[in-house]
Specification:
Length: 188
């Protein structure tokens, strides 16, 4: 009887660990090659670059937060801009049979498009996989009909710190991007 109780407790512990995904959780990013900022910006602000990209946050507990747009970076920090085509996605994720099942939908788009209201109500379901420490993702972005296969890098492994602006865990869906300032304020 004790052996049966022990076996059941081990099974229940395993099931609860599987219900809360651990290995994939965290901030992931992908971007096109960096382009140097115009000379007048570099002259005034120092070296900086920009690239279209995607941030994906697989939050503990299964919340999925994702945003696409333009990433801006200097020599030590990268973050997603609040304009230039910002799109924010909400959803859930779970680990199933060695891959991730991601269900998400568009929740905010800076630029409107025909069919946007339908896109905001329509869930997109994709499978993500981990290959050589990178997350492989067939990303679908309304209003596009096809998918782009992206290979995302963990922000924990990045040489430049990536901020989770617009993809913070625990944030409730609102249809509007959060008002997180682009720049740190200086105390005078």
């Amino acid at each position: 009887m004790r052996l049966l109780a022990f076996a059941i407790s081990v099974l229940l512990a395993s099931a609860s660990q599987a219900a809360t995904p651990q290995g994939y959780a965290g901030l992931w990013s992908w971007h096109y090659p960096w382009t140097s900022a115009p000379a007048e910006i570099v002259k005034d602000s120092g070296p900086s670059w920009y690239a279209s990209g995607l941030l994906l946050n697989l939050c503990e507990g299964g919340q999925l937060r994702m945003a696409t747009g333009v990433l801006y970076r200097d020599t030590s920090l990268a973050n997603l801009g609040s304009s230039d085509g910002l799109q924010v996605y909400e959803g859930e994720w779970s680990e199933e049979a060695g891959s991730i099942k991601a269900t998400y939908h568009l929740s905010f788009s800076e630029i409107g498009f025909t069919g946007m209201e339908l896109a905001m109500r329509t869930p997109i379901v994709e499978r993500l996989s981990l290959e050589n420490g990178k997350l492989v993702f067939s990303f679908r972005s309304p209003p596009e009909t096809g998918a782009r296969t992206l290979t995302l890098t963990s922000a924990a492994d990045a040489t430049i710190k990536v901020e989770d602006r617009f993809v913070e865990c625990g944030r409730k869906e609102s249809g509007e991007p959060p008002n997180k300032p682009l720049e740190r304020t200086r105390e005078e």
